[in-house]
Design goal:
With 112 residues, this protein is mainly β. Helix content is 7%, strand content 53%.
Length: 112
């Protein structure tokens, strides 16, 4: 996962490297047959009271397959598809960082 400023004046940052260990093992599961997703907490929890399923919802292709709408309990985003194969896909989307600055996130998902 990386993030840039909108005008690309800030160098790309490897956000995964900055995440606490308890967030590094979270896993997104995508089910293309049912057009759904689940975000799993992983084995290491930040808080033992955290639910195992962090989010779940639907994925919908839009704009002739160039975008994905990801809508769940706490997720409501439009992802631009950069590329995709049977084992990897790259997306980007705009969101607010912890400083409330609008930034572009670029994420690579790999089949596990």
């Amino acid at each position: 996962m990386s993030v840039d400023s909108i005008v690309d004046t800030v160098p790309t940052i490897d956000l995964f490297a900055t995440l606490p260990t308890c967030k590094k093992d979270n896993v997104w599961h995508f089910d293309a047959t049912n057009n759904t997703f689940t975000l799993d907490e992983g084995a290491t929890k930040c808080d033992v009271a955290d639910p195992q399923t962090k989010d779940q919802g639907t994925i919908t292709e839009q704009n002739n397959g160039s975008q994905l709408r990801v809508a769940g309990t706490s997720t409501n985003e439009i992802w631009e598809i950069g590329s995709r194969t049977a084992s990897v896909f790259n997306v980007s989307y705009f969101a607010r960082n912890p400083s409330n600055k609008l930034v572009k996130f670029r994420v690579t998902f790999s089949k596990i």
